Amino acid sequence: MSEDTGMVRVATAESLFEARLIVGRLQAEGIPADIAGESVLETLDGMATMWAGGVPIEVPREMVDRAVEILAEPPASDEDGGGEEIVLDADEDQGDD
After folding, report:
1. Can you spell out the DSSP letters for 17-65?
2. Per-residue model confidence (pLDDT) at position 81
3. Which terminus of the chain has a smaller tally of CB atoms within 10 A, N or C?
4. For the chain, which residues score pLDDT lower than 70?
């Protein structure tokens, strides 16, 4: 979690591209999602993704439950269930560090 912003990680993507898709999906539902450390990942051209364990997607603390609900549902274009699985992080400790 980013202490200064009140943002909580709700998912981890395997790439910056996938993270941007997830953020776009959340934003389309009215949730102000963000990619934590996006500028660093862009600078490193995504090389840090594997080293860092993925690309974290964050939302405001008060919107975590809704974001998890949205991400648990298959995207509208993926009703057949053939898409990639999204790793949700909302079950992790959300306490202040």
Report:
1. HHHHHHHHHHHHTT---EETTHHHHHHTTTTHHHHHTSEEEEEEGGGHH
2. 53
3. C
4. 1-5, 38-52, 77-97
Record: fold of 7-77+84-88:
Alpha-Beta Plaits (3.30.70)
- The answer to whether 90 and 4 are in contact (CB under 8 A) is no
**In the prediction, which pLDDT does 67 show?**
96
CA distance 22 to 48: 19
* Structural tokens at position 90: 């909302």
Spell out the domain ranges in the chain.
7-77+84-88
Tokens for 8? 């909580």
